[in-house]
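Researcher: Next sequence.
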Amino acid sequence: MKVSIVTISFNQRKYLQRCIDSILSQTGCDTEYIVVDPGSTDGSRELIESYGDRIIKVFEPDDGPADGLNKGFKKATGNVYGFINSDDYLLPNALQHISEYFVTQGLRSFVTGQGYIETPDGGQVPIRPKPLTVQNMLHRSAVMFQQATFFPAESYKKIGGFNAKNTTCWDYELFLNLLLEGLRHDIISDDVAAFCLHEESISGSGRLTSKYLIELDRIFLDVCGQKRSLIDKAFTQLLRAKREISSRLGAFKL
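Model: Next structure:
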């Protein structure tokens, strides 16, 4: 089983080496690594070049992150795809666990592993993902862990890849489209990735929150053929409450 990983990076040199090394150091899996850089000026390209042919390089302008990912995956030849942001990283043996999952389960599902959030002060907060469903994604009650999520290449191609016009939640839309295509989402118990939260990151800064919510409304309209109603919004609150109760009960059992 061959796994193709794409990283998009723009002026992220101070984080990039850790990301690259975490992927190139993976064992127990046939790995292909592609890095997309649309024009960094902070030394990122020189760092990427220093790895020679261990990295497939895409050095060309793009129309944003989703477009950059599409350009990267056009170079991919693996059976399974995943994408890691330049400021995040994989944990040891991550791709061995992912490869073993797809060898066992086949290519009609996609999968997310365990991991943690790395906070600005160096702390680690465990991430315990739950299966994604069309319902919990449309109603904003899903918790994604993109860094630890991998999906079949053919399914990605069938749905047309990422929506290049989506500038805030391209991963959310991709995973929803995989579900709508009929794929099941599974969770494995193995540690796979770390999500790094810092002031420069989209999640850490919160600078795109308004656009993100607008994009979610657009996705709901595209899929359901109508805008979110008061009933839909109430259902979102119900699902979130159920998720919170389930999470607390799970923590209590531990």
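Model: The CA atoms of residues 94 and 132 lie 20 Å apart. The first strand starts at residue 2 and ends at 8.
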